[in-house]
From TrEMBL:
Organism: Oryza brachyantha (malo sina)
Protein name per its UniProtKB record: Uncharacterized protein
InterPro entries recorded: HAD-like_sf, HAD-SF_hydro_IA, HAD_sf, Pyr-5-nucltdase
NCBIfam families (alphabetical): HAD-SF-IA-v3, Pyr-5-nucltdase
């Protein structure tokens, strides 16, 4: 849970991605996930290994994920079936325990929300390997949080005309709005950490402060870049009320590009993770 807030910090909440953010991409989980997706596509679509790899890329580009693409194309694939195959066979032993990470997260004084596209089972296994208690976070936004309608529950937003089969994931604006609803904070005072430039760009478009993790250089839409989560305190001391290093200050002009109707969309609500 959050420690006493830093009164001089510009942030009220920190949204943190999981995969390739709280642990490094060098762990190889991302590559293993791609291989498992390819095998799933081979089995469900009757594709060759080469075609499955190409199809995975096509589905990601067109629909945001292979699961979203399969459902959109009419395949009868339940999320639990997909995640059980794709995530259930991952080499989790490659994720090393990180006591420093647990301490770092506990030291963050703001409200902390874990924001991942992954399903809850994968999230918990990854956190367990890292040695991070799920209770360290004030809330969790994962696949099930963003897609309750795929499990026969109420959609994440009360909007008429919502496609009941649509899969909501980052970088969709709907996914980020769902996270902000859970966070219950002003987007301008919310810091979003993610390893994906697409996700960072989507967050910036909705007015969030953004930090690209796993990179030496900022993308156009990132306010910060940090090589690893371990350098968070040095890269963004403002979290703890510190002073930014020259060249790493927040882009306070970014608020001008925020969607004018966002404040009416995002209201604190009780969304269960």
């Amino acid at each position: 849970m959050a420690a006493p807030a830093a009164t001089s910090s510009p942030f009220d909440c920190v949204l943190l991605d999981l995969d390739d953010t709280l642990y490094p991409g060098s762990a190889g989980i991302g590559l293993a996930t791609k291989r498992n997706i390819d095998e799933f596509l081979m089995a469900r679509c009757g594709a060759t290994a080469e075609r499955a790899a190409a199809l995975r890329v096509e589905l990601f580009r067109s629909y945001g994920s292979s699961l979203a693409g399969l459902i959109a194309l009419g395949y009868d694939v339940h999320p639990d079936e997909y995640h059980s195959y794709v995530h259930g066979r991952l080499p989790y032993d490659r994720i090393a325990e990180d006591p420093q990470l647990a301490g770092l997260l506990r030291s963050i004084p703001q409200r902390k929300v874990l924001f991942t596209n992954s399903d809850r089972a994968h999230m918990r296994r990854a956190l367990q390997r890292l040695g991070v208690d799920e209770g360290c976070f004030d809330a969790v936004v994962c696949f099930e949080t963003m897609n309750p309608h795929l499990f026969g529950e109420q959609a994440p937003c009360d909007c008429s005309g919502v496609d009941r089969s649509a899969v909501i994931l980052k970088p969709s604006p709907d996914a980020i709005v769902a996270a902000l609803r859970v966070a219950g904070t002003n987007p301008h005072r919310t810091l979003f950490l993610d390893d994906s430039e697409r996700n960072i760009a989507a967050g910036k478009a909705l007015g969030l402060r953004t930090a690209l993790v796993g990179k030496r250089v900022r993308s156009k839409e990132a306010d910060y870049a940090l090589e690893s989560i371990g350098s968070l305190r040095r890269a963004i001391p403002e979290i703890w009320g510190g002073i930014a290093v020259a060249g790493e200050q927040l882009d306070h002009g970014a608020e001008k590009g925020m969607r004018p109707d966002l404040s009416s969309i995002i209201q604190p609500t009780s969304v269960l993770a």
